[in-house]
Write a structure and sequence with these properties.
With about 160 residues, the protein is mainly beta. The protein is about 10% helix and about 25% strand. It has a single domain, classed as Cyclophilin-like (Cyclophilin), CATH 2.40.100. The protein is built from two helices and eight strands. The longest helix has 12 residues. The radius of gyration is 14 Å and the shape is globular.
Length: about 160
C-alpha cells in the first residue's frame, strides 16, 4: 500500500474512553504515515491497549503484546525534521528503541517535551479528543509489570481527503 503524500489523512482512535482525532502529516513523515495508515486499515491496532501512560508525559500504544516490546516484525527509519518539534501537547510520534527502530508503537504527548526533539518521528497532531488521551488510565509497565491491561483502542479508522 502507498499513500499519496499530497492528500490529507485523519485517524480517529475509538477508545474505551472516547474518540481521539489525529491529523496525520504525510508531507513531513510520508513513510511513517504510510506505515500507520496501512496498519490501521489492516486492523492491527484493533483491541490494542495504551500500555504506557505517564502523568504529564505521554500515552503510548500500538504494541499488540501490551508489554512495550511488541511490534509488526519490521522497522522503518526515523523521519525527523528540525522544523517540527515537541513544542506542544497533542503531538503524535513513533516510539522507538533507538534510531531507525520505528514499528507500530506510537505516543501522544501531554505537554511540551523538548527533551524528545530529534529522537522521534512526529507524524500527527491531535485535533480533537486530547482530553480523552489525558483521561487514560495511568500505567507504567516498568514500575509494575503485573498491572492490569491499559485502556483499549477499539479501532482506528482512516479518512482520506
Amino acid at each position: 500500500m502507498q499513500i499519496d503524500p499530497a492528500r490529507q489523512y485523519v485517524a480517529t482512535l475509538d477508545t474505551v474512553r472516547g474518540k481521539i482525532v489525529i491529523e496525520l502529516l504525510p508531507q513531513v513523515a510520508p513513510r511513517t504515515v504510510n506505515n500507520f495508515v496501512f496498519l490501521a486499515r489492516q486492523g492491527y491496532y484493533d483491541g490494542v491497549t495504551f500500555h504506557r501512560v505517564l502523568k504529564d508525559f505521554v500515552a503510548q500504544g500500538g504494541d499488540p503484546t501490551g508489554t512495550g516490546r511488541g511490534g509488526p516484525g519490521y522497522f522503518i527509519p526515523n523521519e525527523v525534521t528540525p522544523d517540527l518539534t515537541f513544542d506542544q501537547p497533542g503531538l503524535v510520534a513513533m516510539a522507538n528503541a533507538g534510531p531507525d527502530t520505528n514499528g507500530s508503537q506510537f505516543f501522544i504527548t501531554f505537554r511540551e517535551l523538548p527533551s524528545l526533539n530529534g529522537g522521534y518521528t512526529i507524524f500527527g497532531r491531535v485535533t480533537s479528543g486530547l482530553e480523552v488521551a489525558l483521561s487514560l488510565t495511568l500505567r507504567d509497565p516498568a514500575a509494575d509489570p503485573n498491572a492490569p491491561p491499559g485502556d483499549k483502542i477499539n479501532t482506528i479508522t482512516i479518512e482520506e481527503k
